[in-house]
Specification:
alpha+beta; two-stranded antiparallel sheet; about 15% strand; elongated
Length: about 120
Protein backbone atom coordinates (compact mmCIF):
# COMPACT_ATOMS: atom_id res chain seq x y z
CA UNK A 1 0.00 0.00 0.00
CA UNK A 2 1.40 3.37 -0.97
CA UNK A 3 1.31 5.96 1.78
CA UNK A 4 3.03 9.24 2.39
CA UNK A 5 3.46 10.44 5.92
CA UNK A 6 2.52 14.06 6.51
CA UNK A 7 4.17 15.74 9.46
CA UNK A 8 2.81 18.92 10.97
CA UNK A 9 5.92 20.98 11.47
CA UNK A 10 6.98 21.27 15.08
CA UNK A 11 7.84 24.96 14.95
CA UNK A 12 4.38 25.79 13.67
CA UNK A 13 2.68 23.53 16.20
CA UNK A 14 4.18 25.28 19.23
CA UNK A 15 1.82 25.90 22.10
CA UNK A 16 2.83 28.17 24.94
CA UNK A 17 1.56 27.00 28.29
CA UNK A 18 0.39 29.52 30.88
CA UNK A 19 2.14 27.82 33.79
CA UNK A 20 5.16 29.80 35.05
CA UNK A 21 7.01 26.53 35.62
CA UNK A 22 6.70 25.81 31.91
CA UNK A 23 8.12 29.05 30.49
CA UNK A 24 9.41 27.19 27.44
CA UNK A 25 6.76 26.46 24.78
CA UNK A 26 5.73 22.85 24.39
CA UNK A 27 5.97 21.36 20.91
CA UNK A 28 3.38 18.93 19.61
CA UNK A 29 4.08 16.86 16.51
CA UNK A 30 1.28 15.32 14.55
CA UNK A 31 1.81 12.66 11.92
CA UNK A 32 -0.84 11.53 9.46
CA UNK A 33 -0.63 8.93 6.72
CA UNK A 34 -2.05 9.78 3.28
CA UNK A 35 -2.89 6.83 1.05
CA UNK A 36 -2.28 7.19 -2.69
CA UNK A 37 -2.33 3.58 -3.87
CA UNK A 38 -5.45 4.28 -5.92
CA UNK A 39 -3.87 7.23 -7.78
CA UNK A 40 -1.78 7.41 -10.95
CA UNK A 41 0.44 10.37 -10.12
CA UNK A 42 1.49 10.85 -13.73
CA UNK A 43 -2.09 12.05 -14.39
CA UNK A 44 -2.88 15.66 -13.47
CA UNK A 45 -6.31 14.78 -12.02
CA UNK A 46 -4.85 12.15 -9.71
CA UNK A 47 -1.94 14.40 -8.69
CA UNK A 48 -4.51 17.10 -7.86
CA UNK A 49 -6.46 14.57 -5.80
CA UNK A 50 -3.30 13.78 -3.82
CA UNK A 51 -2.74 17.49 -3.17
CA UNK A 52 -6.33 17.77 -1.88
CA UNK A 53 -5.67 14.82 0.45
CA UNK A 54 -2.43 16.46 1.63
CA UNK A 55 -4.23 19.76 2.26
CA UNK A 56 -7.02 18.06 4.24
CA UNK A 57 -4.51 16.12 6.34
CA UNK A 58 -2.36 19.22 6.90
CA UNK A 59 -5.36 21.30 7.97
CA UNK A 60 -6.48 18.56 10.36
CA UNK A 61 -2.98 18.13 11.82
CA UNK A 62 -2.49 21.88 12.21
CA UNK A 63 -5.80 22.42 14.01
CA UNK A 64 -7.69 24.25 11.27
CA UNK A 65 -11.36 24.16 12.24
CA UNK A 66 -14.22 26.56 11.45
CA UNK A 67 -14.06 28.10 14.94
CA UNK A 68 -13.34 31.79 15.47
CA UNK A 69 -9.63 32.41 15.88
CA UNK A 70 -7.32 35.27 16.76
CA UNK A 71 -5.08 36.67 14.04
CA UNK A 72 -2.08 35.09 15.74
CA UNK A 73 -3.72 31.66 15.77
CA UNK A 74 -4.82 31.96 12.11
CA UNK A 75 -1.26 32.93 11.14
CA UNK A 76 0.15 29.93 13.03
CA UNK A 77 -2.32 27.55 11.39
CA UNK A 78 -1.60 28.90 7.90
CA UNK A 79 2.16 28.64 8.43
CA UNK A 80 1.82 25.10 9.77
CA UNK A 81 -0.40 24.06 6.86
CA UNK A 82 1.92 25.61 4.26
CA UNK A 83 5.04 24.01 5.74
CA UNK A 84 3.32 20.64 6.12
CA UNK A 85 2.17 20.79 2.49
CA UNK A 86 5.70 21.61 1.32
CA UNK A 87 7.10 18.65 3.28
CA UNK A 88 4.42 16.30 1.92
CA UNK A 89 5.00 17.43 -1.68
CA UNK A 90 8.74 16.89 -1.20
CA UNK A 91 8.15 13.41 0.25
CA UNK A 92 5.89 12.53 -2.67
CA UNK A 93 8.92 13.13 -4.90
CA UNK A 94 6.74 13.32 -8.00
CA UNK A 95 7.23 15.86 -10.80
CA UNK A 96 3.49 16.19 -11.56
CA UNK A 97 2.57 16.76 -7.90
CA UNK A 98 5.37 19.33 -7.53
CA UNK A 99 4.40 21.08 -10.75
CA UNK A 100 0.78 21.40 -9.69
CA UNK A 101 1.68 22.58 -6.19
CA UNK A 102 4.41 25.06 -7.09
CA UNK A 103 3.07 26.02 -10.51
CA UNK A 104 6.21 24.79 -12.25
CA UNK A 105 8.10 21.58 -12.83
CA UNK A 106 11.00 21.17 -10.37
CA UNK A 107 14.51 21.52 -11.75
CA UNK A 108 15.61 18.37 -9.92
CA UNK A 109 13.94 15.52 -8.09
CA UNK A 110 15.48 13.47 -5.33
CA UNK A 111 15.55 9.70 -5.54
CA UNK A 112 14.67 8.06 -2.25
CA UNK A 113 16.29 4.90 -0.99
CA UNK A 114 13.98 2.18 0.29
CA UNK A 115 14.63 1.07 3.86
Amino acid sequence: MKRIMLFAVAAAMTIALASPAMAEPMTIRTQLSVNHADLNLSEANDASALLRRFRGAARMACGDTPAKRSLTEMTRIRACTRTSMEHAVARANNAMVSELYYGRRPAITVDTVAN
